[in-house]
Amino acid sequence: MAHFIYLTNSRLVSMVTRGKRIASRREFDATAPAAAEFEPYLANLRREPVHLLTDLAEEDFRLDAIPHVGARDREAILARKLAQMFRNTPFRYAVVQGREPEGRRDDRVLYTAITNPEVLRPWLEAIERLRVPLGGIYSAAVFSSSLLPALNLLFPHTLLVTFTPGGAMRQTYFREQEIKFSRLTPIDPEEGQSLGTLISEETTRTWQYLDSLRHFAENDRLEVCVLLHASDRVLVQPSLRDFAQIQHHILDMDEVGARLGIRPPPAGSTAEEVFVHLFLARPGRNHFASAEMRRFDTLRRARFALRQAAALAFAGCLAGAVWNVDRALETSDHDVRVESDLSKANQEYDAVTRAMPSFGVGGSTMRDSVAFYNAAIRGFPRVTDFAATLSHVLDRHPEIRLGQLAWIASDDPKALPVVSKAGTGEPPPVRAVTAEPPSPRPTADEAFAGGRYEVALVAGTVRVANNDFRGALAEVNRLAEELAALPGTQADIVQSPLDTSSRAQIEGRHSEHESRTMEPRFVLRVVRDHGEIGS
């Protein structure tokens, strides 16, 4: 629902729309007493947004060209031009209509304004006092450009003739669908002069004026399109004479109404209902109303947007609640099915248990066995885990080759596994010979040890250049340091590639054909504390 006000110099027409049709209409005289009568009428419609269309003699139109600049600079130029041209009115507007085809290709601009703001003042004061949301103030002449494509009036030169409530004729000139000029003429025929003769004379004067401004070329023709009701057409059409430069077209109001979807069609020749229906189909931009004048409409739109957002949020919450309830019901059904299946499984288990013979293992024995497994066996270290860790470190030492790995798990960090002294191929040219004590073996008490410590002897060889015992010892030391860097791990060299201690005897040999490399043997003792790793 919306409220449209069509204001002329002598009449104010109020039209209330519902959907795409005019539901009610009322006219007032454009006088001070009528304005006082209009205010209580407007109070009943104060909740509806109002759109004010002006069709006044005080509307001025001027053409100009400005340099083609950016949007922000253009707005500043237009504002300055409007203030210079129309200093005494706030109701002013500029329409940018494209660019000149030649030269600097400046922007073409039409400036328009209501030069006498007092014409609007009493009506706007009533709207302001009642806090009615004002959607905008529109020039009917400028807005009538939307009528050309709607009625397929796509001529190079068009003069649109419409009639206003209160007895006036509006002539608006369009060149290539761009408005260039408009004037309002009172319908005041002289004695013996018909309406058709008046229209013919006025349109001829308009053509002469436009021709003097060089709007037409030699072969151009002005298409005069007159919007008339069928009852007036028979009085006007016989008086219209076509010439080489002027061609008249009668736009029947019934046909216009059918094309624009106006039901019922307008009952007279005035165009206010046509403009209202056209606005409902193709809303126009605000021309004259400032942001301050439109603030109540801005608040109305903001409230509407908030209501829409709240409605969407509520709908989303409601949908979420329905979905949650549905999921809860589905989950509940699933729980019931699971509980039923579990009950059946328990019944089947009890039946199988009763049918199985007893092997003499009591429940306490089984419980103790499970407890022993969880405490002593389940978490017992495995040699495979130790070997995997050792392999990751050895990958970074390609010159070292693993010969033997002796591993035990014990609660004694001093325990020592047994490693055999295997041959390593060709012995190095120099070696240390020591008397090795017999290696201790695990006792019977350690058969079920807790396995806090993993103790391993890692025996291998390191390939280096012949007689490079310093390099061999450095490589073995790096291996021991990397193993010791692992969490909870200690690594000590038990047998060095060359033992230089006082307890060792050094033996050497000499050959005419010695190998370029040698592989001295070494032994590392590695201890991993699982108690430290777990903490």
- Output the structural class: alpha+beta
Strand content: 25-35%
Round the mean pLDDT to the nearest integer and report it. 87
| Biggest sheet features | 5 strands, mixed
The strand line-up of the biggest sheet is: 3-2-1-4-8
Q: What distance lies between the first and last C-alpha atoms, to the nearest angstrom? A: 77 Å
Unreliable stretches (pLDDT < 50, length at least 5) are none
Number of helices: 14
Helix content: 25-40%
Structure overview:
The protein is an alpha+beta fold and 535 residues long. The chain is 37% helix and 28% strand. The protein has helices spanning 32-43, 71-85, 121-129, 140-143, 147-150, 195-212, 230-236, 253-260, 272-281, 295-355, 363-377, 383-394, 469-484, 530-534; strands spanning 2-8, 11-18, 21-29, 50-55, 59-66, 92-99, 107-114, 134-139, 157-164, 168-175, 178-186, 222-228, 246-252, 400-410, 430-433, 453-462, 464-465, 489-495, 505-508, 517-518, 521-529. A 5-stranded mixed β-sheet has the order 3-2-1-4-8, sandwiched between helices. The chain has a 5-stranded mixed β-sheet with strand order 11-10-9-12-13. Strand 2 and strand 3 (21-29) form a beta hairpin. Helix 1 runs parallel beside helix 3 (121-129). The longest helix is centred in the middle third of the chain and has 61 residues, at 295-355.
